């Protein structure tokens, strides 16, 4: 579910270069994808080549990039006029930390360069590392080269894209994996007895929720944020990005979106979602599960996303497992 549209929700460097978010799995995101980043535009040429293997020329071009500088600080890249036909990677240094696996929250520093070898920007500048879930389809280009590598690994990735004039180009990133932690697959904590009269939530063996809407149930005039499981993590603030598993229903009990059905949790900024999410998740603790009953004016009001199956002025019901926040 595109909780609120925000094209280019990743950092300025990534959004400008289409370097990581833009070179992720380029299959068109579902209209009701939960992540604002999923709305970032990607090129058709990248989509066509994403599944191809690098050519000998691609590999040679990336091997020829000179990397100067020690791990732990921003390196300098030296090359000129680099072009690749498909995303191409090279491990520059192998770390000595924990082995990376899908589902981990991975933290990275990176620097980006354009095809002419000019530096575009870096997370090292402001000491602002970024995190993503390894295996997230938006970063799928990084999954294969990073799974099995240790924390501390430095990876070069050259990605074919288009420039501001829609001409073919290439962007080069060097990323350094600085940390990785395993994210829980579901909410964990102390069960909380919900207030009477609310939709009833039942969990499957894997933690996926289902709801039963009471007959004649009318949506409240104000947002309901009922904690079902109280996690013992830090309190979520409205300026954070959260990783969550969730399912959303209309008031007639029809599912319109579910990360559980897609098979992986989603990451999104609480500044880029509908107000019912921002207000309902802020103040909860990491590890919690929350039932949200959202009045229409705090959901999509008269303008639900096209193709979402949500009628105008519809109240919505969500069950959200808050797995992480930063």
Helix-strand layout with pairing:
Blueprint: H1 12-17, H2 44-49, H3 56-63, E1 66-68, E2 76-78, E3 88-93, E4 104-113, E5 119-122, E6 130-133, H4 140-146, E7 154-162, E8 168-182, E9 190-191, E10 200-203, E11 209-212, E12 224-230, E13 241-250, E14 255-258, H5 259-262, E15 266-269, H6 275-281, E16 289-294, E17 316-325
Protein described:
Residues 1-50 have low confidence and may be disordered. Strand 4 and strand 5 form a beta hairpin. The two termini are 21 Å apart. The chain has helices at residues 12-17, 44-49, 56-63, 140-146, 259-262, 275-281; strands at residues 66-68, 76-78, 88-93, 104-113, 119-122, 130-133, 154-162, 168-182, 190-191, 200-203, 209-212, 224-230, 241-250, 255-258, 266-269, 289-294, 316-325. The protein has 326 residues and is mainly beta. The longest helix is centred in the first third of the chain and has 8 residues, at 56-63. Strands 9, 12, 13, 14, 15, 16 and 17 form a 7-stranded antiparallel sheet that branches. It is elongated. The protein contains 6 helices and 17 strands.
């Amino acid at each position: 579910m595109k909780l609120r549209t925000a094209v280019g929700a990743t950092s300025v460097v990534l959004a400008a270069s289409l370097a990581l978010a833009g070179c992720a799995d380029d299959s068109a995101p579902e209209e009701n994808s939960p992540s604002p980043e999923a709305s970032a535009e990607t090129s058709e040429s990248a989509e066509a080549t994403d599944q191809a293997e690098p050519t000998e020329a691609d590999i040679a071009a990336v091997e020829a990039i000179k990397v100067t500088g020690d791990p732990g600080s921003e390196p300098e890249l030296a090359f000129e006029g680099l072009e690749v036909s498909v995303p191409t990677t090279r491990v520059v240094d192998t770390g000595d930390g924990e082995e990376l696996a899908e589902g981990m929250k991975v933290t990275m520093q990176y620097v980006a360069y354009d095809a002419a070898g000019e530096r575009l920007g870096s997370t090292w500048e402001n000491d602002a590392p970024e995190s993503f879930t390894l295996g997230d389809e938006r970063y799928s280009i990084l999954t294969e080269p990073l799974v099995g590598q240790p924390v501390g690994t430095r990876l070069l990735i050259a990605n074919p894209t288009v420039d501001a004039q829609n001409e073919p180009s290439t962007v080069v990133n060097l990323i350094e994996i600085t940390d990785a932690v395993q994210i829980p697959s579901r909410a964990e904590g102390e069960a909380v007895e919900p207030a009477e009269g609310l939709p009833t939530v039942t969990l499957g063996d894997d933690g996926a929720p289902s709801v039963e809407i009471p007959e004649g149930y009318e949506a409240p005039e104000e947002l309901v944020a009922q904690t079902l499981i109280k996690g013992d993590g830090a309190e979520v603030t409205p300026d954070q990005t959260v990783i969550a598993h969730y399912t959303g229903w209309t008031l007639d009990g029809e599912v319109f979106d579910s990360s559980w059905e897609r098979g992986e949790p989603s990451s999104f900024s609480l500044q880029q979602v509908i107000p019912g999410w921002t207000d309902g998740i802020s103040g909860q603790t990491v590890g919690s599960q929350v039932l949200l009953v959202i009045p229409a004016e705090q959901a999509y009001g008269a303008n639900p996303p096209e193709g979402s199956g949500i009628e105008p002025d519809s109240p919505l019901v969500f069950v959200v497992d808050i797995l992480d926040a930063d």
